[in-house]
Design goal:
By secondary structure, this protein is of the alpha/beta class. The chain folds into 2 domains: 137 residues, HUPs (Rossmann fold, 3-Layer(aba) Sandwich), CATH 3.40.50; 117 residues, Rossmann fold (3-Layer(aba) Sandwich), CATH 3.40.50. Helix content is 39%, strand content 26%. It has a 10-stranded mixed beta sheet, sandwiched between helices. Helix 2 links the parallel strand 2 and strand 3. Helix 3 packs parallel to helix 5.
Length: 265
């Protein structure tokens, strides 16, 4: 049985991510933890206590209604609810780092710049702070079965098998084809990159010469390709960060037109 964590704020974006997760794992043994986080604005002790009670009541009522709806529509899935007064990003990271969840699946919407990625986004905070595989689903994106997973790598060997195991497991579940996209510099020669355990699963390999803007290159490629999921490995000193600058994975989170699976080295 797969265990996934889906943070929800009851918005259309988070509900769409939940629907995507259920569609992806449809027909498979699945346990879904729905987690909602609420906070208290600054104020006096009396005001805080009263607001706490109101927020807690509203959050619990919304969660109970959602659980009832989900159980009626998906009786084969085990649903667990967590309604917590806490910071969303840090608490989701802690839950992901507990090792209890195979994937964190959450919705996201576009951001205008890196400042919003680092300062204002729950998704950005989770990606930066957890070791669990994270899948971010763009607003309004609908799951498509029997599709292609596109994985981008640079000129370095694929990371160890334990890092890519969540991708391998996902491919087994969905039956998707895996395509490897090599991103190289103009000065690089096309070369064989050891793919390790992925080699037997790869249906196709392709190469593009990077323009210096990896995210733009990826999205241009995705438009012409048939991929329905993009996979990237986030490393502290990886190829993409060194060559293209900044965190390419975090940037892609807010610019990808298809869901993005982020693995952590």
């Amino acid at each position: 049985m797969k265990h996934i964590l889906v943070p929800v704020d009851f918005s259309d974006i988070s509900m769409n991510a939940l629907k995507y997760a259920l569609d992806m794992f449809k027909g498979k043994p699945l346990a879904v933890t729905l987690a909602h986080f609420y906070g208290t604005p600054k104020g006096g002790a009396f005001m805080m206590k009263n607001i706490d009670r109101i927020l807690e009541k509203e959050a619990q009522e919304s969660m109970n209604a959602l659980i009832k709806q989900m159980e009626e529509a998906h009786s084969e899935v085990s649903f667990i609810s967590k309604t917590v007064q806490a910071d969303a990003s840090s608490t989701i990271c802690d839950m992901g780092n507990s090792g209890k969840y195979d994937y964190i699946i959450m919705g996201t919407k576009g951001a205008s710049g890196l400042k919003e990625v680092f300062m204002g986004s729950v998704a950005g905070g989770v990606i930066a702070g957890t070791s669990a595989p994270v899948m971010v689903v763009p607003a309004n994106y609908e799951f498509k079965a029997a599709s292609e997973v596109l994985m981008t790598i640079g000129k370095e060997p694929v990371v160890d098998d334990s890092v890519i195991e969540p991708l391998i497991e996902l491919l087994k579940i969905t039956g998707d084809q895996l395509k490897i996209l090599h991103v190289v510099n103009k000065s690089d020669k096309v070369m064989e990159v050891p793919l390790g355990k992925l080699k037997s699963l790869v249906s196709e390999e392709d190469y593009i010469i990077g323009s210096g803007d990896l995210n733009k290159d990826l999205n241009s490629y995705i438009i012409k390709d048939d991929a329905q999921l993009l996979c990237m490995v986030r490393t502290k000193k990886g190829f993409f960060n060194r060559i293209f600058g900044g965190s390419a994975t975090l940037k892609q989170t807010f610019n990808s037109t298809i869901p993005l699976l982020i693995l952590h080295e």
